[in-house]
Amino acid sequence: MTAAFALATALLWGLADFGGGLLTRRVPALTVVVVSQVLAVLVLGAVVLATGAWTEAGPDLWYAVAAGVVGPAAMLAFYKALALGPMGVVSPLGSLGVVVPVTVGLVLGDRPGLLQVGGIVAAVAGIVLAGGPELRGAPVQRQAIALTLFAAFGFGAVMALIAEASTTVTGLFLALFVQRVTNVAVGGGALYLSVRRGGRALPEEGFRVVLGALPALAFVGLADVAANGTYALAAQRGPVLVAAVLASLYPVVTALAAFGVLRERLRAVQAAGAGLALVGTVLIAGG
Q1: Which of 7, 34, 42, 107 stands the most exposed, by the fewest C-beta atoms within 10 Å?
Q2: How many CB atoms sit inside 10 A of residue 122's CB?
């Protein structure tokens, strides 16, 4: 079940990233983040009320608050790094956040077998290669590298934090709700400051574009929430190390979605990365 939940996480995160990437071509990135999370809050709020999850409030919810603060900060840093570019360097480096939950798993006592170690190495290498790394001729600003590594650490920290936020399914609903409320507060504050500094909250065509994109925004927000939930379940039911590596295959899903939907050509290094990640997945699951 750990592998199944973790692979579901990779699928959901990959599709959410793909959808979010498409939306940011029409709507400012911060607005995409905030609106998608507001829609997720509304749905999760209804779930919390329907299941009585609020009765499970406890000190573990501070993990969810921390995840809600770190997540938007990491995402904003990643967007800034992408703007500084090049994407072929930033995207693969951003995948290195898997190191955080893997380290947590080792500290907690996870000891994978030899076959799984080989699978983990293959999967992590495949994840980085699937991002289409630029191996030469790509000048990179130090600020872009610093921002990317900060974002990677943040992404990994969110995985580790949300796994600790609850030990029950209904408690997980409450934890995810608290995380998203915090996301909205942090992201909304960043959007407000951006507008005050002359940034745009709406596309040039106006609010009607955002209104028309609401179904897609809802999908992005809910897919991200579901991914956090399935990852927490994966980490609670099996080795954290295995769950983290399999869940971190989401860049492969994003690359394949771009290939299948947008007909974007996969570079040879991306195709090799996808194949290597698949091999790693089989070895991890088989071990």
Answers
A1: 107
A2: 21
Give the Cα separation of 120 and 11 in Å (integer): 18
Between CA 123 and CA 115 the distance in angstroms is 12
Q: Write the DSSP string, the chain.
A: -HHHHHHHHHHHHHHHHHHHHHHTTTS-HHHHHHHHHHHHHHHHHHHHHHHTGGGG--TTHHHHHHHHHHHHHHHHHHHHHHHHS-HHHHHHHHGGGGHHHHHHHHHTT----HHHHHHHHHHHHHHHHHT----SS----HHHHHHHHHHHHHHHHHHHHHHTS-SSHHHHHHHHHHHHHHHHHHHHHHHHHHHHTT--SS-TT-HHHHHHTHHHHHHHHHHHHHHHHHHHHHHHHS-HHHHHHHHTTHHHHHHHHHHHHS-PPPPHHHHHHHHHHHHHHHHHHH-
Across the range 97-119, mean pLDDT stands at: 80
Q: Tens of pLDDT along 162-178?
A: 888 888 888 899 999 99
Instruction: Check if the beta carbon of residue 269 is closer than 8 Å to that of residue 260.
Output: no
Q: Cα–Cα distance between 17 and 29 in angstroms, integer?
A: 12
What is this structure's pTM? Answer: 0.82
Q: What distance in Å separates the CA atoms of residue 139 and residue 105, rounded to the nearest whole number?
A: 35
Q: Would you state the structure tokens that stand for residue 81, as one six-digit string?
A: 């790094």
Report the alpha-carbon angle 149-159-223, nearest 5.
105
Crossing angle between the packed helical segments 29-51 and 61-84, to the nearest 10 degrees? 160
